[in-house]
Design goal:
four-stranded mixed sheet, 40% helix, 5 helices, 139 residues, alpha+beta
């Protein structure tokens, strides 16, 4: 990797300082009086209980006990590889949540690409339970 690429990679890493150092499970967060997650930069942020309950309602019946082990926040991956104004959601249960929020069903396995209007709707419904993750291509 040349020096320009290293500088760019470092910039992207700094853009992701808001991401959690460790994601917590839905079960852990629901048991906390004031659910919060600590970010990589050491700050902490709250996840609203109502949003956690919405997620639990969406996936509880389909995923059963698995729902408690879901790790949050849900990551919205932004990368130039997905095209302009597109983002990726990875993980079957996370895709199920997004599809329920968007009110649509897609044939998907473990990942889906959503676009700007979908990202806005998702963030409007789950502003504290979702986070942007910025990615760069290493190739």
């Amino acid at each position: 990797m040349d020096s320009e690429s290293r500088v760019f990679a470092k910039l992207v890493r700094s853009l992701n300082d808001h991401l959690p150092a460790e994601r917590k499970t839905l079960g852990e967060l629901l048991r906390e009086e004031k659910p919060r997650v600590v970010s990589r930069d050491g700050s902490s942020y709250r996840i609203r209980k109502e949003e956690l309950e919405t997620i639990e309602r969406i996936i509880g019946s389909k995923w059963g006990k698995e729902a408690e082990r879901l790790r949050l926040p849900l990551l919205i991956e932004m990368s130039p590889d997905y095209g302009r104004s597109a983002a990726r959601i990875r993980g079957r249960v996370y895709c199920d949540i997004v599809q329920a929020i968007l009110g649509e069903e897609r044939k998907t396995t473990d990942e889906m690409v959503i676009f700007r209007t979908d990202v806005r709707r998702l963030r409007r419904e789950l502003p504290s339970a979702t986070q942007y993750a910025f990615l760069i291509s290493t190739s």
